[in-house]
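Work Package 4 report. The design task specified in the project plan requires that, given a folded chain encoded as structure tokens, an amino acid be chosen for each position. We show below one input record used in the internal validation round.
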């Protein structure tokens, strides 16, 4: 409980002081801001200051903060049943959500869905399912990929700091291949050649249970996998009996302009992990995959007490209704074009922006020094200056020098113009 702050400090400062005393330092907060309310693409702190939120709960709020239809769905479900655990007794929202996602991702093929609580939990269960199906143990993930903070999650994640620290030993039989990054000289052809070299020198394909890949790397720097690379990976997986898992936790639900990023490449994965924007802010994740693969674990091998909570499933059904009925994908495509054009315009006047990249409304800028090397300090100064101007953004990238934009898809064109203007002023303020 907050003691009434001194007249010399704000309520925000008082709460931050309480945070220092009560929350461990291992969980960082990107901005020294304590929020009180939110709506759409806007948030207000405890002192009433407004910010444009271009973080969206780290890609969780594609339909915006407190969307009225999500709120109504949760309120209605709360009056029926809030939690029973699907492992004890079923309930309609879980099964109805599975039906809809299976049809959406399976496109006529038999798919099944398992619901959990966090993205990391979805990834871990996808690995379990792939291993059960193939009777193999090897998992190939990619440098720069991010797959969660559990021990297996950080093992699958393709960079060390800050996630691995001294948390080991880590699970075995996890290997990392190169992910295409044209800006840093890693072409799709080179990445595929190095994958074949891995098969020859590190792990033979008959020992590999699954490929795990983000179609656009999230925390690794908003790097899109070229469609030809994903198509080649799909062919390699099919040829060797390897399960292809696409991690759509950050890319899913319209972020890239299609419902899922793998659709841009014209492929169909064997398993898809979903979370974040699935339930409009409620904690829900899932694994959606080919029925024969999903049925590989024996009864009792999958589950979790809170997995597929009834309130979260009701929220997710409302989210899918919003996408189907409100033209959100088309709006996201227009926003993506507007954001990319704005960022490219800012790049022309700012040599510190080395690269503008992304897919759809999932865009980022990579900050570099005069020699083109990653400049994490510059990125942080821009982020801080943008906050002072009323815009919240966060960083990503292996070197933490990439500024990413995860605004809700309900952002208006006027709000996006406002955000770009604030960003432009921030870049000017910190220019060397």
């Amino acid at each position: 409980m907050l003691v009434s702050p001194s007249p010399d400090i704000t309520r925000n400062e008082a709460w931050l002081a309480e945070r220092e005393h009560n929350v461990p330092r291992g969980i960082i907060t990107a901005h020294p801001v304590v929020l009180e309310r939110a709506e759409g693409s806007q948030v207000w702190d405890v002192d009433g200051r407004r910010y444009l939120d271009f973080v969206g709960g780290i890609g969780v709020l594609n339909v915006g903060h407190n969307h009225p239809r999500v709120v109504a769905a949760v309120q209605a479900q709360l009056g029926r049943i809030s939690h029973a655990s699907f492992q004890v007794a079923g309930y309609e929202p879980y099964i109805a959500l599975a039906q809809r996602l299976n049809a959406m991702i399976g496109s006529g093929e038999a798919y099944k869905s398992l619901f959990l609580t966090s993205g990391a939990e979805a990834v871990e269960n996808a690995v379990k399912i792939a291993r059960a199906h193939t009777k193999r143990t090897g998992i190939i993930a990619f440098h720069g990929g991010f797959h969660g903070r559990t021990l297996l999650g950080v093992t699958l994640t393709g960079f060390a700091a800050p996630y691995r620290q001294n948390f080991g030993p880590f699970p075995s039989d996890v290997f990392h291949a190169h992910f295409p990054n044209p800006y840093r000289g890693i072409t799709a052809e080179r990445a595929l050649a190095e994958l074949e070299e891995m098969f020859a020198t590190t792990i033979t394909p008959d020992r590999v249970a699954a490929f795990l890949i983000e179609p656009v790397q999230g925390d690794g720097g908003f790097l899109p996998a070229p469609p030809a690379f994903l198509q080649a990976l799909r062919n390699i997986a099919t040829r060797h009996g390897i399960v292809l898992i696409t991690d759509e936790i950050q890319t899913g639900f319209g972020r890239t302009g299609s419902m899922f990023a793998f659709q841009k490449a014209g492929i169909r994965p064997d398993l898809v992990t979903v979370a974040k924007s699935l339930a409009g802010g409620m904690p829900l994740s899932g694994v959606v995959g080919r029925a024969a693969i999903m049925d590989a674990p024996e009864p009792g091998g999958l589950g979790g007490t809170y997995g597929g909570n009834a309130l979260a499933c009701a929220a997710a059904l409302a989210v899918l209704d919003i996408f189907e009925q409100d033209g959100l994908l088309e709006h996201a495509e227009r926003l993506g074009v507007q954001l990319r054009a704005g960022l490219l315009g800012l790049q022309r006047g700012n040599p510190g922006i080395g690269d503008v990249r992304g897919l759809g409304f999932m865009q980022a800028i990579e900050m570099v020094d005069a020699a083109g090397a990653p400049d994490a300090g510059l990125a942080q100064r821009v982020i801080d200056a943008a906050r002072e101007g009323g815009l919240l953004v966060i960083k990503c990238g292996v070197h933490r020098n990439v500024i990413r934009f995860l605004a809700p898809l309900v952002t208006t064109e006027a709000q996006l113009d406002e955000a770009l203007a604030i960003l432009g002023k921030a870049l000017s303020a910190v220019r060397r």
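Residues 167 and 341 are 42 Å apart (CA to CA). Validation will be extended to a larger panel in the next phase.
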